[in-house]
Amino acid sequence: MKEIYVVTHTQATHHIDRLVGGWYDSELTEKGKADALICGARLQELELDGIPIISSDLARAKQTALAITECLGSPISYDARLREMSFGDAEGRSVADVGGAILSSDGDNRLDYRNTFGGETKRELASRLYEVMETIIATGRVIVCTHGYAATFLIACWIGMPIESVGYVNFRVQPGSITYLKEDDFFANRAVRYLSDVRHLDL
Fold first, then answer.
1. What is the set of domains in the chain, with CATH numbers?
2. Structure pTM?
3. Which residues contact 60 (CB under 8 A, 6 or more apart)?
């Protein structure tokens, strides 16, 4: 049986300051730190003590993973391929100033559009996340700590969506949420048992 719990990092400073995130290395807010411990407590309720954690190497994800392991006593490893989409020179800048340029696209070729700030294309983003997800799937039972938009492509890989089809895909995954992916032993069907569960948080 394969089980993957995808946890998105909790509230970070760039959320509050309305800055472009991406690879900008923002940290958790005080609320984010508290919510990360709540995530850990919820995972402990699910009897996941000691289950390994694989986390993005950006500070906000690392802090979330460290809070979770306070509850679970889990080993943590870090993988830069789990980072959020890169927005190049726009990272750390005001969303109001640069948002329009980030959201624009080159006609129908949504996979290969690169914004004017030199960030990643969707194809580049999906390719690295698919690559790391294949490694994660082989692990069997694991907690993954990543970012909201990045989680979309981990889920897309899980359900077997071809990269050529992900130009429009976007699963709405909230900060501090838990998404539970499970493959059964008999048919090897891959289910999304629940998506972006935040019932454990006081929103």
1. 2-197 (3.40.50.1240)
2. 0.95
3. 9, 10, 12, 25, 26, 27, 28, 32, 147
